Amino acid sequence: MSESNEAGPSLPGPPLPGPDTALFLDMDGTLLDIAARPDAVVVPEELPGLLMRLQEALGGAVAVVTGRGLSVARGYAGVPDLPIGAEHGAVLDPALPGAPPLPVPPSEWRRAADEWAAARPGTLAEHKTHGLVLHFRQRPEAEPEALALLRELLAGGDGSFRILPAHAAAELRPVGADKGGAVHRLMAVPPFTGRRPIFIGDDVTDEDGMAACAQYGGYGLRVPDDFAGRPALVRSWLARVANAVSGGEPG
Fold it and tell me: How far apart are CA 69 and CA 85, in angstroms?
């Protein structure tokens, strides 16, 4: 299916931004369709080329900011030099100076998460460098038990983690690590500095990034509201942005 057919004349998407834009893009539910399991997503074959076209059009001011771990996010994006804020901004690559040290979950927390998932078919414990996630998309009735386990773990901690609800999942994340922090750190360095940032996301975890963009005169676009909940329309719109900024389509 072509990009123009994906978007359709009745869903043109938001107005196209200008060449002074910086783009911050969530991954799951934004660039990629949500899958039943986080390891079952399908990466469109055109995604790396699209991201590279955006980089070229915007002078490199494009970043992926995702809850995914760094190696997974970089593999999905498929662009070696693309800035990535992984684990909700807890990990930034290429690394920038001044990043605060962040805690890692104790081994007993990871073990408890694995045991919880093993006892509940259809759930999954995902481990990140600075956090962990309990997924229950295939078993939604397990949500109260997932939250109860995370609260129990936090009760025995030192206050350095918090619970973050997400799409059919619950996550433990370090306090102070959020997508807004990734936006602020990248906006302080070229090629992002001085540009008008736009954050595109689909979940509550993206709101911090959108709020950060607003502080630089930018804004957020929400996939459910601005793209009918369809990552294909996000990708189609991004292709139009690349064309417009490169001189191929009026904004």
Answer: 9
Contacts of 141 (CB under 8 A, 6+ apart): none
DSSP 146: H
Cis status of the peptide bond prior to 191, with omega within 30 of 0: yes
The one-letter code for the residue type at 215 is Q
**pTM metric for this prediction:** 0.82
Look over the chain and give the mean of its residue pLDDT values, rounded to a whole number: 90
Nearest to 13 by CA among 26, 1, 4, 23: 4
Mention every residue, 6+ apart, whose C-beta is less than 8 A from residue 77. Answer: 27, 47, 48, 51, 64, 84
Residues 79, 52 contacting (CB under 8 angstroms): yes
C-alpha 134/C-alpha 139 separation (Å) is 11
Q: SS in 3 state form for 158-207?
A: CCCEEEEEECCEEEEEECCCCHHHHHHHHHCCCCCCCCEEEEEECCHHHH
Nearest-angstrom CA–CA distance, 19 and 178: 27
Q: What is the pLDDT of residues 68-84, one digit of tens each?
A: 989 999 999 999 999 99
Place of tokens 């998407």: 13
User: Using CB atoms within 10 A of its CB, is residue 97 exposed (0-12), middle (13-18) or buried (19+)?
Assistant: exposed
Q: Which of 20, 26, 93, 178 is catalytic?
A: 26
Closest CA to 54 of 218, 203, 236, 250: 236
Q: Is 158 one of the annotated active-site residues of the chain?
A: no
- How does pLDDT run across 165-195, given as a tens digit for each residue? 877 889 898 887 889 999 999 999 999 999 9
Q: What residues pair up with 64 in beta bridges, in sequence order?
A: 25, 84
